[in-house]
Design brief:
This protein is mostly helical and 135 residues long. Helix 1 packs antiparallel against helix 2 and helix 5 runs parallel beside helix 6. 10% of the residues are buried. 47% of the residues lie in helices and 9% in strands. Strand 2, helix 6 and strand 3 form a beta-alpha-beta unit.
Length: 135
Amino acid sequence: MNWRREVSTLYANLRGDGLGMAMKYAAFRALLKFHSRPLSWLISKWAPFPLMVEIEASTACDLRCRHCELGALPDWGQPPRLMPYDDFLRILNEFPRLVFIDLTGIGEPILNPRFLDMVKEIKRRGIWIEGFDHF
């Protein structure tokens, strides 16, 4: 990235989100100048578990939107599946320091019959949840 673009992006962060965001951006860009191997080692020592995961509770969908890969490819090579609740709990247990879960994916997560149980378990563990739906 050239220096003009660096300064432009830094100024946009400063103007849009304030000094804190600009400082975070500058620190992030400084870290990226290091070789990737020491940086990845350092990150794995500080945060050995991911803080965010995306869980696909369902690959089934009841709509056929033209802009969606399921709508464009009605037979995308795999049958629709619903994630079993036991698999969902196993995933949650494998990542003990989760802060954020995104319940989305190629399908409609609300079609899973255990969707509300999944949401209750996520909230019971104090994890932030995000999801997308057609409504």
